[in-house]
Design goal:
InterPro entries: DUF6386, PUA-like_sf. By secondary structure, the protein is of the alpha+beta class. The chain contains ten helices and 18 strands. The chain has three domains: 216 residues, Substrate Binding Domain Of DNAk, Chain A, domain 1; 118 residues, Roll (Archaeosine Trna-guanine Transglycosylase, Chain: A, domain 4), CATH 2.30.130.40; 80 residues, no CATH class. Helix 5 packs parallel to helix 8, helix 5 packs parallel to helix 10 and helix 8 packs parallel to helix 10. The N and C termini lie far apart (61 Å).
Length: 470
């Protein structure tokens, strides 16, 4: 049975943006018992180093324990004011290394990967670890943390600033940690709480006096530069039998190419989909939906890879030698609507769509019919190219940044336009930058097809010319 760090809980249903309807541990404040922490309170904050800082009152000794539930295997501590700039971003922004790295470095967010979903008891203190806690510390990690308002919200991933959060911090009066405004060293200690004798009862449930799963010790500092922050969310699981700690997100967000098969279903579209581009809600026909829908099939060891790696070829035609895109399908959607025409008369209509990403360029060898649907045989398309000088890459990035900041059509074409531009700024690989720039531009179909056929260096040069002409 999985061990998780909480003693007692009250559960309520919440709608998760990521997982649908889930049971989420509601946040409750528990009274603190046990030993008094043995270390002294932190020094006051130096006003001369930050306009937002103020001296920590000498009588403010934080010692508060809270519960948190998570279904994203992580918990967070943040001042909502410090993350207000994320309110128009997708709700999974924190899973992208280029975004989370910025917030961890700025002290806008403390984030811990718990290694599993569940409920966790966490104690917040300005006075350090107790003797009992110190005896069961597994490992520790320092974070930068800044509060602009004097209030930090403790969350399981449901109320982080984004365009559509499941809940909002201001609607929860309980899960707050109050501190003086300023900068802090936040040291998170993972506690193997269940190893202490008497921490669990005969049924394996934590007792009222068991230690917390984590202790966060907060110490005011004159500057966040004194602290070396993690680059991405560290895994800090309170379980001696778990794997070694590892990084939560991957260092590279580049879409991996799927091994190319010889034959794929063909979806004919006038608009080109470029490699590396993530596209949502592409309308498809009922026949196309049925080509991709494996929901009625039994999953076996033999077909699981095929089911999990559905791909189609998207092309303006089925002509031999046509350059096309292999598109990896991530999700399929089907919805129906009923139009009432009169008494006992109505029309029940269905619509279908797919989400996914461009994987790689391919060239059509031949086309044929299979079960009444167009299929094609393809081969890789990799035109020879000279190396792309870094000066050209940087020029393309700067031109795109200017375009993203000034073009009225860009935010209409690209969802989460600011986040897209932020991602572009973090990239270094020429082809990925070029394809994402091409995806963001509102181009005529014939220009899109031209770009898809170009070698890498010519592609970058052509995009530079297009941006300079805008």
């Amino acid at each position: 049975m999985r061990k998780i760090g909480f003693n007692s809980s009250i559960w309520q249903a919440k709608k998760s943006w990521r997982y649908g309807l889930v049971a989420v541990l509601s946040c409750v404040v528990l009274a603190i018992g046990g030993d008094r922490p043995s270390t002294s309170a932190p020094a006051s904050i130096n006003n001369s180093n930050s306009a937002n800082q103020m001296e920590l009152p000498s009588n403010l000794n934080l010692n508060k324990t809270l519960m948190v539930g998570t279904d994203v295997a992580a918990w967070f501590l943040f001042d909502p004011q410090a993350l207000a700039h994320r309110e128009q971003d997708p709700c999974d922004w924190w899973t992208h290394d280029f975004a989370i790295r910025k917030e961890l470095a700025a002290g806008n967010l403390l984030a811990v990967d718990t290694g599993s979903d569940g409920g966790f008891k966490v104690r917040f203190s300005t006075e350090g670890l107790s003797d009992r806690e110190r005896a069961y510390v597994r490992y520790s990690r320092e974070f930068r943390l800044r509060t602009l308002s004097g209030k930090l919200y403790f969350d399981g991933g449901y109320a982080l600033s984004c365009d559509d959060p499941t809940s909002k911090p201001e609607e929860d009066p309980e899960n707050w940690v109050e501190l003086a405004k300023g900068d802090y060293r936040a040291t998170v200690h993972t506690i193997d709480w269940y190893e202490e004798p008497g921490s669990v009862d005969s049924e394996g449930t934590g007792t009222e006096t068991s230690l917390p799963a984590y202790v966060v010790v907060l110490e005011s500092v004159p500057s966040l530069e004194l602290i070396s922050p993690p680059a991405i969310i560290p895994r800090m699981e309170p379980d001696l039998y778990s794997e070694e700690p590892y990084n939560f997100s991957e260092e590279s967000e580049e879409i991996e190419e799927t091994p190319l098969k010889r034959e794929y279903a063909l979806f004919i579209r006038n608009e080109t989909i470029f490699p590396k581009a993530k596209i949502d809600e592409i309308p498809i026909s009922k026949n196309e939906f049925q080509q991709l829908d494996f929901s009625s099939q039994k999953i076996t060891a033999e077909n699981v890879l095929e089911i999990l790696s559905r791909s189609v070829v998207i092309s303006p035609s089925n002509h031999p030698q046509q350059i096309a895109t292999l598109f990896g399908v991530v999700t399929l959607s089907a919805s129906n609507s009923i139009q009432v025409l009169g008494e006992d008369r109505f029309v029940d209509s269905w619509s279908y769509s797919m989400d996914g990403h461009g994987e790689q360029r391919v060239q059509i060898i031949r086309s044929f019919k299979r079960n009444g649907v167009d299929w094609v045989e393809v081969k890789p398309y990799t035109p020879q190219s000279e190396p792309v000088p870094d000066t050209l890459v940087q020029q393309l990035k700067q031109l795109f940044a200017n375009y993203a900041a000034t073009s009225p059509s860009y935010p209409k074409r690209i969802k989460y336009a600011h986040f897209y531009a932020e991602r572009m700024e973090s990239l270094t690989e020429a082809s990925e930058i070029a394809w994402l720039v091409a995806n963001a531009l509102d181009l005529a179909p014939e220009i899109q097809r031209e770009l898809l056929s170009l070698p890498e260096k010519e592609l970058v040069e052509r995009l530079i010319a297009l941006l300079e002409a805008i």
